[in-house]
Give the backbone structure.
Amino acid sequence: MRNDIPARGEPQDPAQDPAPDPAQSPANRARRPSSAATRKPIGERELLWMMALLMALNAFGIDAILPALDDLAETLGAPGNDRQFVVGAYLLAAGLGTLAPGAFADRFGRRPVLFVALAAYIGLSLACASATTFDGLVILRAAQGFFAAGIVALPPAIIRDRVGGDKMARMMSLIFVIFLLVPAIAPSIGRGVLVLTGDWRWIFVTMALAGIAMSAWVFIRLPETLHEEDRQEIRIPLIARNMKSAVSLRETIGYTLGSMLVFGGLFGFINSSQQLIGEAFGAGDDFNIIFAICAGCMAIANWLNSRIVERYGARRVSHAALFVFIFVAAAQLWFANQPDESLWTFVPLMAANMSLLGFIGANFGSIALQPFRHIAGAASSAQGFLRMTGGAALGAYIGYAYDGTARPLALALLVTAVLSLAFVLFSERGTLFGPPVPEED
């Protein structure tokens, strides 16, 4: 019988050699992520769903408890507007917490840091369910937001590891479509849990269960996306320099601060929405539906943005949306100052401005992160810190200014949008509506 396997040391017939695999070249090996996964590669669609639902854990942690704020305040003795601190403390601490995950993810990889954040989300959700005082609950919520910040900070870095240019804006828009489905239904889920169990504490248990499900999915399917040559050392001067560059470049800082302002207005609505809709407009029974309509409009806008952004460019789309946002916010302020403002004027205008945020948020974030692929983790953390901390603090102030009418919110939306335009003009040196940016990777 013929032996077709050459003896050791005997040269093989070149004609019988398999064609060289381009993926095995040294250049391509260096470009592959640092973990060689043997599992079936994750596709773009699955990655989008995973990143969206990771970020949605954060939204679920905020919005699911909204229908239970009255019961929570009664149980733990929280007076007046103080109940908003259950939401505001989480948002503000999450902003502060975004400083840490990116730098560690640039050194150790995205997966380990993501698992730490998920573990914190699960554990502190269960701790919140056991709170016996309002002050204790607020402290636990702050800790939950801080230590779980990686579930918000890392998905943009993971996407930036793979794509850039306006394609990243398209992918982030699709993520926001899925992500915003959760705020649309989270209050209804919270209400359903409250009706079934009669106890707001089970809403936090539901958060923990959602975190466990996401942890399993990430563990099984998400490969490491950090490229070996992009690893950064854990040195304070280096981390500080990377973060400083991410928030000091003129071409991007205006977009970071601009999104901080417009989302501060959105957070102001979230903080005061339960009181505004239930007390000012007397539609507490319809709160879940109204909130779902507003969040749903924002999700639809993000889907539309994903369809047009690569053609027209993130700058053209977001700049046009910001101008329309200012116009709608001015209309909101005019109606809010009328003595007979009704739900029929408030909801369509609020839904319109939340829709416009769908053309602003993902595009502003993608433009701001575009120059920083090699330090995407640190850049995402630094920019997320400004965006979340500033937005949460501003949102808490707007929410706490609630006076029984929609006037404080309407004024805040107009002022923040105008200031956002000023920051964008600064970054663009006075020239708006720039052309599309192709993917360079």
Q: What stands out?
A: Confidence is low (pLDDT under 50) at residues 1-37. Residues 165-197 form the longest helix (33 residues). DSSP finds 18 helices and no strands in the chain. The radius of gyration is 24 Å.
